[in-house]
Amino acid sequence: MAFWSATDSKLKMVVLFPSGQKNQVWYSPIKHNHKPDETIIHAMVKRLGQQIKGYNKIHIYEVASNSLKYIYE
CA torsion 39→43→44→46, rounded to 10°? Predict the structure, then answer.
């Protein structure tokens, strides 16, 4: 089984950078799909937010519906 998947992961994190820079997309681990959204989001932002510098915003989407759930600025 894959660690993450664009179709099977529960959440997608899109890191938005200033104009001219490429945005980054990260998916939540599939093995965490049973956990509450807030728990997964906190872990993703904590882990990746420290490694990624210079971003404007972080958008969190639910993969199944592609609906925006949270915005971090």
Answer: 130
Q: Cα(30)–Cα(16) distance, rounded to whole angstroms?
A: 23
Mean pLDDT for 62-72 is 94
Report the SS3 class of residue 19. Answer: coil
Closest by CA to 66, choosing from 23, 8, 12, is 12
Residue 30 has pLDDT above 80, yes or no: yes
Q: Is 56 helix (H, G, I), strand (E, B) or coil?
A: coil
Joined tokens for residue 59: 């958008």
| Token output for 39 | 């728990």
The pTM of the full predicted model, rounded to 2 decimals, is 0.87
